[in-house]
């Protein structure tokens, strides 16, 4: 139970900590100053949402997300959200490929080569069908988390640990709702793909509480670090490189590897969700479907990493507000006690 619970926890966290999150660009887009309450609220909403989604996937033994969406929003809206999720998975995986190119450009590696190399390694994930995805995540995500937290703590140490937790001026709390609704879409897609593999309810508790605490803690630490360099972020495609600019080149190299790992796991999760949904429509081996999808995405990476995040992420966050409300309220409207009273 514990092993599987941690495996699902790392699958959830790996789905979210992509190039947008690990680079700091996504967090800065939604949070920033006066966001302590917002991050607390996000932690609670995210944990509850993950529990509802995993519990539904477990009960329905799902292999893809349409049955789960139907339970949450009804058959008519499920069709609309099906297209939204497909669009989200496609566009965010494209953003990951653009992030791969932007990360390796620091070393004068051509954008297209960094993008193509990352895409090829994502294809390799699916040589063993979809089992390779969860196995690689369980190995890479702990390394990714430890590396990111270590870098942020070193930065905070150099600044004298200037943490703040003032709850009196917190006007940015609505950002928690849109940030959670944005991140719910990939969770629905990826968790629904493994619903038939969840063996015990204890796995759900371990995965949801663990991922909620991890995402909330890292978001707070990261946001506090970004506030220290707020005046310089606008000049950088990847804000995390501002944190590292005064450190030895070995730190920048380590950070580039970290960003690439984040890109790799999130791009893999996006392709994983797409394959599970399109399995009935596209015939062939998983790695061939992955190659086809990545080839279609490649030309779209020319729009730019930060530009796509700035436009698409807030848009998806707004569109998914209704889905988030349905997820949070689902336990209340489908509680056994209410059914007995009908």
UniProtKB/TrEMBL annotation:
InterPro entries: YkvI-like. It comes from the Bacteria. Signal peptide: none annotated. The keyword Nucleus does not apply. Keywords: Membrane, Transmembrane, Transmembrane helix. It comes from Alkalicoccobacillus plakortidis. This is Membrane protein YkvI. The chain crosses the membrane at residues 38-59, 80-103, 109-127, 139-158, 173-192, 204-222, 250-275, 287-309, 315-333. The keyword Transferase does not apply.
């Amino acid at each position: 139970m514990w092993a599987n619970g941690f495996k699902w926890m790392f699958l959830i966290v790996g789905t979210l900590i992509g190039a947008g999150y690990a680079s700091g660009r996504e967090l800065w887009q939604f949070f920033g100053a006066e966001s302590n309450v917002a991050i607390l609220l996000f932690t609670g909403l995210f944990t509850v949402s993950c529990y509802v989604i995993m519990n539904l996937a477990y009960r329905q033994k799902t292999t893809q997300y349409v049955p789960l969406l139907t339970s949450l929003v009804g058959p008519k809206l499920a069709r609309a959200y099906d297209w939204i999720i497909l669009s989200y998975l496609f566009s965010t995986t494209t953003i990951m490929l653009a992030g791969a190119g932007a990360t390796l450009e620091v070393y004068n590696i051509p954008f297209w080569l960094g993008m193509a190399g990352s895409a090829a390694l994502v294809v390799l994930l699916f040589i063993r069908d979809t089992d390779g995805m969860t196995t690689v995540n369980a190995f890479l995500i702990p390394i990714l988390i430890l590396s990111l937290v270590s870098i942020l703590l070193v930065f905070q140490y150099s600044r004298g640990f200037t943490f703040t937790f003032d709850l009196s001026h917190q006007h940015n709390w609505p950002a928690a709702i849109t940030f959670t609704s944005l991140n719910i879409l990939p969770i629905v897609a990826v968790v629904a793909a493994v619903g038939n593999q969840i063996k015990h309810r204890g796995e759900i508790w371990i995965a949801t509480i663990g991922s909620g605490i991890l995402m909330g803690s890292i978001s707070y630490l990261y946001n506090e670090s970004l506030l220290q360099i707020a005046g310089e972020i606008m000049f950088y495609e990847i804000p995390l490189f501002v944190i590292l600019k005064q450190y030895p080149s070995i730190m920048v190299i380590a950070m580039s590897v970290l960003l690439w790992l984040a890109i790799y796991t999130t791009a893999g999760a996006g392709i994983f969700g797409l394959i599970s949904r399109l399995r009935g429509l596209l015939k062939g081996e998983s790695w061939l479907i992955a190659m086809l999808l990545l080839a279609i995405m490649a030309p779209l990476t020319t729009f730019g990493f930060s530009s796509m995040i700035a436009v698409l992420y807030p848009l998806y966050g707004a569109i998914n507000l209704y889905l988030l409300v349905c997820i949070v309220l689902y336990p209340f409207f489908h509680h056994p006690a209410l059914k007995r009273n009908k």
